[in-house]
Amino acid sequence: MVGSYPGARQVASKPMAYRFNPPPNWPPPPPGWVPPSGWQPPPDWPVPPPGWPLWVDDAAADPPANPGAPPAADAAAAPGAPGAAGAAGQRTGPRHAKAGPPDADVAVIPPPAVPVASPAVPEVPEVPVASTETEEIGIFGAQKRALLAENSGLAEENQRLRQQVAAATEQLRELRTQVVATDEVAALQEVGIYEYRHPLQDAVAYKSRLAEIKNTLKAMTSQRTAVKSATSWTVNGSAQKGTAMVREVSRLMLRAYNAEADNCVRTLRPHTLQASVTRLVKARDTIARLGQTMSIQISDAYHRQRILELELTADYLVRQEEEKERVRAERERQKEEEAARRDFEREKARLLKEQAHYTTALARLQEKGDAAGADGMQERLTQIAESLEAVDRRAASVRAGYVYVISNIGSFGENMIKIGMTRRLDPRERIRELGDASVPFRFDVHAFVFSEDAVSLETELQRRLEHCRVNQVNRRREFFRTTPAEALTLLEQVAGSHLLEFTEIPEALEWRASKPALSPAG
């Protein structure tokens, strides 16, 4: 042991009533050694056995070899025992120098000043009495340690929970970055009117450009430039086997990437272009992460070609839809023109027949000498001739016609009007066609305006209501979210004297008669 006892100090008089009793695992003290005042055992000495008395009565028998045999209370009750003095409140000594049980919070050593026997009156060491205050201090100390331990445990649990919350938050952030927005309604509202990435002339030009991209992708695949990979990989020390393994894994990665890209192309809609591009970028990043060991990744040139393919495909779909709509509009125009031509022919035939009838009647009146009747008949023939001239003029002019303002409150609700143009002699025939089986109720007419240049009048009205247009993509859908009163104001400004009459409140007979049946109670 490193520590040792200090020099021996002899007692000049008769022996003390108590003597120092070192534990068996301590070095024996020198003969006649008495602990000096303030002495502490060295810190490298072992802990005394539980219950070992450091002070024993000289009159008592020697302590037994078993350290647990003497009760701990013997040393505490012995008069003048340093352990009793320590139990009164000394806490400065090392923990292994306690005379009591290991959990006691009181120290046994050092003893008080060693009493020396006097020739006349021997000094008797004071016998400290264990007080209730000491016991309370021990109890409160144990409670304090328990509370501190519990508080420490709660702090550790709080720290652990904070770390879990931080980890979960970071994981949620990463997952959100991996989510691809595919909500078509939200995408439509965000994008609005589609803008071409590569505005070619028509759908045929886009189709030809897409074919060129397909050929480029095939060439890059055959030339092995579509995927980048490690060149120094070996398998069982064989570079040839390593190259073959890397090539096979690269093909597998490229196959997965192309499958994702082809799926994006098949499911692509113009308003989901950005979501499809983001999805393909994430697929490429995933392949790069999985192939990191072999440095496998899709090359930038190949990835750019597939992105370009998505952009051109979106443009092609829009251009294709526009051309389909243009064909439908042209068919509708031809149908309208054919209906107008038949109207003109029927009207002209009717007028010619009427003209022939009045011409025959005029000849008979002239033969009879009825001058007054002949004058009236001649006047009617003049009117018929003017009507025939007007029909021919209408048939020859492709811009003359009626501009109409209609609504369908039962089908589209209030504050929704349609502005269009027809060349029919009777514009109500066109309105009846619009209210066919495709809508539940017929349209109501707010105004008819005849103009020699009805095309320009219709275009100007629609231009002034552009901010109210419902369909921002297909501009041939001529519906506007506004009130008939606002349309009347524009007609007065643009049409002027051509506006003959206007009805603000729609009649809507079918809808109003059907309202009781359409109510929830019905």
Summarize this, please?
With 522 residues, this protein is of the alpha+beta class.
Task: Report on the architecture of this protein.
This protein is an alpha+beta fold. It has 4 domains: 1-130, no CATH class; 137-176; 203-326; 399-522, no CATH class. The chain is 52% helix and 6% strand. The protein is built from 14 helices and 8 strands. It has a 4-stranded antiparallel sheet, sandwiched between helices. The protein has a two-stranded antiparallel ribbon with strand order 1-2. Strands 3-4 form a two-stranded antiparallel ribbon. The longest helix has 69 residues, at 300-368. It starts with 17 loop residues before the first strand and ends with a helix. Mean pLDDT is 75; it is low at 10-16, 63-125 and 184-193.
Describe this protein with a few key phrases:
single chain; alpha+beta; 4 domains; 14 helices; 6% strand
